[in-house]
Amino acid sequence: MRARLALGTTAAALLAGALLPTSALAHGLVVREDLPIPESLFGVGAAVVLIVSFVGLALLWTTPRLEDERWRALPGGVGRLLGAPHVRRPLELVAGLVGVLLLVVVVWSGLAGVQTSAANFAPNFVYVVFWLGLVPVSVIFGDVFRAFNPWRAVGRAFAWIAGRLSGGGLPEPLPYPDRLGRWPAAAGVLAFAWLELVADGGDMPRTVAIATLVYSAATFLGMALYGVDAWIARAEAFSVYFNLFSRVSVFERRGNEVGVRRPLSGLSSLEPLPGTVGLLMVMIGSVSFDGLSGGQDWQRIVPALQDAFGALGLGPARTLELTFGFGLVATIALVTAFYRLGIAGARSVGGRLGQRELARAFVHSLVPIALVYAAAHYVSLLVIQGQAVGFLASDPLGEGWNVFGTAAATIDYGVLSQSAYWYMQVGFVVAGHMAALTLAHDRALALYERGRLAVRSQYWMLAVMVGFTILALWLLAQANEG
Amino acid sequence: MPSRQRIGLIAAAVAVAAVAFVVLRPQGDGEEIRPRNAPEQAADGSTPRSGSAAGSRERERKPAPDVARIKVADGAPVGGVERLELSKGDDVRFEVSSDTPEEVHVHGYDVFEEVAPGEEARFDFPAELEGIFEVELEGSHTAIAELRVSP
Predict the structure, then answer these.
(1) What pTM did the predictor assign?
(2) B61 and B30, same structural domain?
(3) Tens digits of residue pLDDT in A147-180
(4) Does B40 fall in a domain?
(5) Are residues A421 and A34 in contact, defined by beta-carbon separation less than 8 angstroms?
(6) Tens digits of per-residue pLDDT, A89-133?
(7) Which of B5, B75, B133 lies at the smallest CB-CB distance from A31?
(8) At B92, which CATH number?
(9) Domain for residue B39, yes or no?
């Protein structure tokens, strides 16, 4: 997009230089970008997806397998040890303290530290270590963030102290409105994406700190009104976000034991509350927009959009924000329309389920898709920029400290080759496609009493999955193409 | 599902695979995903090809093409942000001239050179890191070129 604008007058070029570095994804943090995946790899990825889909259809199993709650404790007493209250509670306490400490360091370094995003702990930690790093951790180990969640820890501590002081006379929290469902979480993730991809200076340390404070205040208010557990389970954006991904993990605690479940079966037990579809659409749409906004097609329409929004007379920075904000919302709307279309198709085969029920019934199968969108898109950023924690831990404010003696550490930009990222990206996308297909088919079998209807509804869901997967590959092939 | 149908679907899958392979078969650019071996690279002795998107595909040796020159006027690159496309192991060679004193920073590689009116900044370093890196005027945070190093 920079090149595009620079073609204009020198004034326009100056403007571009002044405005654009802050408009792309936390731009100060993205030093190295991936080259687009080669056409050949795109072709191979697409072909594998189609073959997997057809073979999947051909070898359909006829009874649902993922809907059961099968689970067994880790052997050798390990599960009992890890889940035992006298082990789990102190661990959770320590994790909660670590979470609160990190929250404080983020706010403090963001407000008091050097205002260069790459040299400050706050943006690096929030956008890379926390937002990207917790995704693989959740997928492998389960819902780890629940223990580290600083807002939950503070809320519980506060409730405990207040309960002690008032002698158990605390008023009961309001019942959490059913209609609210996961909508607050969807709004939270959208706000985060806006800050990351749209807001002017969204990667600046002070902005990150202030956003963290505002979000903390909103979360404390929500917990005060509706109770800590209800708010964390459904409304707190990051809890809900990482919990979705943790459902891919085989590890789950039940009662006082930690055990393993069937892969993906954690997703089948996702309760389709209102707002869940909205949340998934925001997740898939925002990553799509991040890929799209690095490519040529978007750059071609940016000037026209800027002209249109410029007519509002808000000044160049706000106009650019509006342009990108429009792009983000429009991408989410397109993704939503596509999913709705597939659902409408699935409904047309018959059966007693309405449009809304069907949309919710299959929403869990979108979680692997949202996961691989994020994984394929951000793996290189996590691998590379994640290394910044090495020196930022010693010097969070960027002022030349050396607390742990690691301040001299640097980032190795060549730690993995571009080819390695390409194979990982395509591998993730194909694996996510297979998982989504499996979940959708399994759900169809559970929903439709007659196998034939299940199969016919599956053609539509298959089209949705293939569409999302090809879109993911296409985004990877055209990212940074401009 | 009857087994005939099942076999039909598998056959269809294989057919799709075959068609997809033929249609999408890499034409020459397949080598892009394979790292080239080093000795060939050294013999190649290629220099940065600037601007041309097809540059990375035409691997014919040009007799020492001109070093890319980037001209900065009024704090912005003349002619827009130039692409420097090369392969890993090539030499990154380019020059920057500017009508104002500035510092030029190649991100990722973290190479810095001063530039001033009449004094060009000259860069010459091996392309060891793959990916897309920005070349920026450090003072004004203006992008002047994009370094694209393919495997």
Answers:
(1) 0.84
(2) no
(3) 999 999 999 999 999 888 887 777 889 999 999 9
(4) no
(5) yes
(6) 999 999 999 999 999 999 999 999 999 999 999 999 999 999 999
(7) B133
(8) 2.60.40.420
(9) no
